[in-house]
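Supplementary Data S3. Sequence and structure tokens for construct A.
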Amino acid sequence: MTTNESSPDIQTYRRGHVAIVAMRRAPHNFLEPGLLAALAHEFEALDDDNSCRAVVLASDVKSFCAGADFASRDPSTKPDPAAFYRQALRLFRTRKPIVAAVQGAAVGAGVGLALAADFRVTCPEARFSVNFNRLGFHPGFGLSLTLPRLIGQQHAAMLFYTGSRIDGVRAVDIGLADQLCNTIDDVREQAISLATDIAASAPLAVESTRATLRANLADLLHQSNQRELQEQAIQFATADFREGVAAMAARRLPVFQKR
């Protein structure tokens, strides 16, 4: 087992031709550019490792990934997620198939991270929420493209507009996740089993098939992300955004004023 030298928040180990990359920023794997850059660096290094044929993205802490930490930011400063999204885009340009082991909460950009993977293995205890609108701003991380592409326009709109949380059972029902485990303790092993099945196929064929299936996804994602950034830049300056973050911190329903 090895720790990523550029980030103590990532640990990588191997199971045959499968690399398991585990996030370990307790308690919720909150995302910021440094952690995303470390993940991208690790995935790019695995692309150049011929002994690796598939990757599992997992978590060693309570949540899979709770997205960006808005609650602890300085409320007098306006977020600028451009650098954050530049690192995220690197994940979508990597070549090896990825299985995400979503054993806990995946929230906001955490869902975006899970959708950078090809497949998602989860459990009934998991929670998925794309709560951007409930916080007062436009979705990001390319989710305005990747989520409807995966689950359809109607399911995506419902999740975006309401910010509702769904469990792992519902996630599999609507296609947000691919496999459901009986218990939370089974998620990583089942994800490794799926990645091992992928790794048993011819690696050149798998990578070329993946490239065909994804086509110009990363380029389309970049275009969608530019639109997301434009909208977010406007909405981060609003009173509604400040109210959304305050309501989240206080665990109450926000009272938005459309200003």
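Construct B, processed identically:
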Amino acid sequence: MFGLRLGRRSGATDYGQGTQSGLGSWIPIPQTADTDLRAQAEALRLTGFYRPEDIDIDRRALAGQKVRFCANNTGNEPDDQYFGEVVCISDGTVTGSAANTAVPELQTLVLGSPAINMPDNIAYQARRGNWIIHEDGETVTDLLGPHNNDLWSCLPDGKDENLSGDGCVRIATLNDLEAEWTGGIFDASGKHFYVSIQHNVTGTGTVLDITGWK
């Protein structure tokens, strides 16, 4: 088991508070019968994130024998006005990553906002390379008033001057202030998106098969 510690400035311990993106290292975590990961994260000065919820693999990178995956940090909108973010970690080649000789790099794909609020689950769309972000945010806020949780389709980073995604569009909205999207996943074709709706007013969860993807 390894933990991520960001910060690699030569000749210095350039890690800790404020170093939450960029290059880093995978740090081995000592194993016991019941390892306390929170205590180990503090002792090893691993990079901390607020409510990391879900991860999916970048299949295009994997097809090229590269390791890359993206994940959500959900954040805490009601208490802190922290809307979360989507981050992506690259880790060299499959061979290098398996041998722990690669240098991991974390960059922000999508910065949360009152619109894209508290991203929870994430799904990679085969063929298109888009990322489907599932909201699990507060649905009654001072900034937006009553509003339901959404699904967002976000472009990967293109050939431009930054490393973030190239835009997101809202593709679905729930009609129930209590409900949230969760657990979405595409089939291998990228044309069927299976996603769950939980906490809805019926008291029974629902699984949808959303089609029509180009």
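Helices lie at 37-43, 59-63, 77-80, 94-98. The chain is about 10% helix and 40% strand.
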